[in-house]
């Protein structure tokens, strides 16, 4: 009897070891795939990896419940703080994440307004929202266009001139509206009827000149020269520029932080409250917070991270690229946004639906 009991226990432990898995839900083009393979090789924990391209998609999955994911990466505002408030994320057991010590305390302090005492997440990567441009093609159709300003996109005078070479708008009200408010001289957190009316008027004025709404798709369109202007994430534009150079077809893509300012955001490694594999999730967070691993992720994605020790490990070309590691002067032009109310969310969603429909 004892022998059969021992055999049963051994089989059960073996099955458990084989079943160890972490289900990850991350942004498109936002990791070095070899990192996933190395995590499995070192820990024996398999990875299942899905992607999203907007915060709206991520929030819909998590608020519906039972997403099946163990690791999710919401931006600190508004999604991360909103998920915390709703009880959709679980606190991180730092005793099981020894590499937490590698995080930059100054950057972690920036997200404390979203997560008091940094209880629910660690910074994965961060970046800003600005303009991806092909200056050569824009100059060909609009020689006097202001390449350093939101006016290039949001002033209908310039949008009309640039439209023939292709304008792509990020398909995310959460990300776009604060930038429009900033351009209009209003608070990026503005949520009054007057604020949304002003945003609606500004967006509807350029609606005829928007070729496409996309998030992840803007990267490929910029890289291949199918579009010359896109409102997009900094790292995506930098990836597009790198791909264009590798293709060697004369496509020139660069990222612009508009002079009026650009929103900066932090994507947070966090664990859903109903995650089925919390221990495996903690192991994954600890793994990617190693400087050697995070440096590889920055090299692949061209987004900066929050681990100072990676500076000695990432590619020199990225360290010297102000679009990846912004200078102090550029950092002064960045702004962050605060939590949003449900009423503001509903108003923003209605505004966006009308904008996309063009009415």
What does this molecule look like?
There is one protein chain. Helix 2 (33-43) links the parallel strand 1 (21-27) and strand 2. Helix 10 packs parallel to helix 17 and helix 11 runs parallel beside helix 12 (234-247). The protein is globular. The strands form three sheets. Strands 5, 6, 7, 8, 9, 10 and 12 form a seven-stranded mixed sheet that branches. It has a three-stranded parallel sheet with strand order 2-1-3. It is built from 17 helices and twelve strands. Helix content is 46%, strand content 16%. It has 359 residues and is an alpha/beta fold. The chain folds into two domains: 2-126 and 266-324, D-Maltodextrin-Binding Protein, domain 2 (3-Layer(aba) Sandwich), CATH 3.40.190; 128-264 and 336-357, D-Maltodextrin-Binding Protein, domain 2.
For this structure, what is the CATH class of the largest domain?
Answer: Alpha Beta
Could you say which structural class the secondary elements and strand pairing correspond to?
alpha/beta
Order of helices and strands: HEHEHEHEHEHHHEHHEHEHEEEHHHHEH
Count of DSSP-assigned helices: 17
Strand segment count: 12
Unreliable spans: 4-8, 10-17
- What does the radius of gyration come to? 22 Å
- Terminal CA distance reads 76 Å
Q: What is the CATH topology descriptor of the largest domain? A: D-Maltodextrin-Binding Protein, domain 2
The percent of residues in helical segments reads 40-55%
Strand content: 15-25%
Q: What's the CATH H-level homologous superfamily of the largest domain?
A: Periplasmic binding protein-like II
Shape: globular
Mean of all residue-level pLDDT scores: 93
Q: Please describe the biggest sheet, giving its number of strands, its sense, and whether it closes into a barrel.
A: 7 strands, mixed
CATH architecture classification name of the largest domain = 3-Layer(aba) Sandwich
The figure for the number of domains is 2
């Amino acid at each position: 009897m004892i022998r059969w009991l021992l055999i049963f226990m051994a089989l059960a432990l073996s099955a458990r070891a084989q079943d160890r898995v972490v289900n990850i839900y991350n942004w498109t083009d936002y990791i070095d795939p070899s990192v996933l393979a190395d995590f499995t090789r070192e820990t024996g924990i398999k990875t299942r990896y899905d992607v999203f391209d907007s915060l709206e998609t991520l929030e819909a999955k998590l608020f519906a419940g039972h997403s099946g994911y163990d690791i999710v990466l919401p931006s600190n505002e508004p999604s991360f703080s909103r998920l915390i408030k709703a009880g959709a994320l679980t606190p991180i057991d730092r005793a099981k994440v020894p590499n937490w010590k590698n995080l930059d305390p100054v950057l972690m302090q920036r997200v404390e307004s979203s997560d008091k005492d940094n209880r629910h997440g660690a910074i994965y990567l961060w970046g800003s929202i600005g303009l991806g441009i092909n200056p050569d093609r824009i100059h060909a159709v609009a020689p006097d266009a202001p390449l350093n300003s939101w006016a290039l996109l949001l002033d209908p005078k310039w949008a009309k001139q640039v439209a023939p070479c292709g304008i792509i708008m990020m398909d995310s009200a959460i990300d776009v509206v604060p930038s429009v408010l900033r351009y209009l001289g209003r608070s990026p957190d503005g949520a009054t009827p007057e604020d949304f009316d002003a945003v609606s008027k500004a967006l509807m004025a350029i609606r005829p000149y928007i070729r496409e709404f996309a998030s992840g798709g803007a990267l490929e369109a910029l890289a291949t020269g199918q579009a010359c202007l896109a409102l997009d994430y900094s790292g995506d534009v930098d990836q597009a520029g790198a791909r264009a150079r590798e293709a060697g077809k004369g496509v020139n893509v660069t990222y612009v932080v508009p002079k009026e300012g650009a929103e900066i955001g932090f994507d947070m490694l966090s664990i859903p409250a109903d995650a089925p594999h919390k221990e495996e999730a903690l192991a994954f967070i600890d793994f990617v917070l190693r400087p050697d691993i995070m440096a590889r992720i920055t090299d692949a994605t061209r987004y900066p991270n929050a681990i100072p020790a990676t500076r000695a490990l990432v590619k020199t070309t990225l360290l010297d690229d102000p679009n990846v590691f912004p200078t102090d002067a550029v950092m002064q032009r960045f702004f962050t946004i605060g939590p949003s109310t449900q009423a503001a969310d509903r108003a923003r969603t209605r505004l966006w639906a009308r904008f996309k429909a063009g009415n």
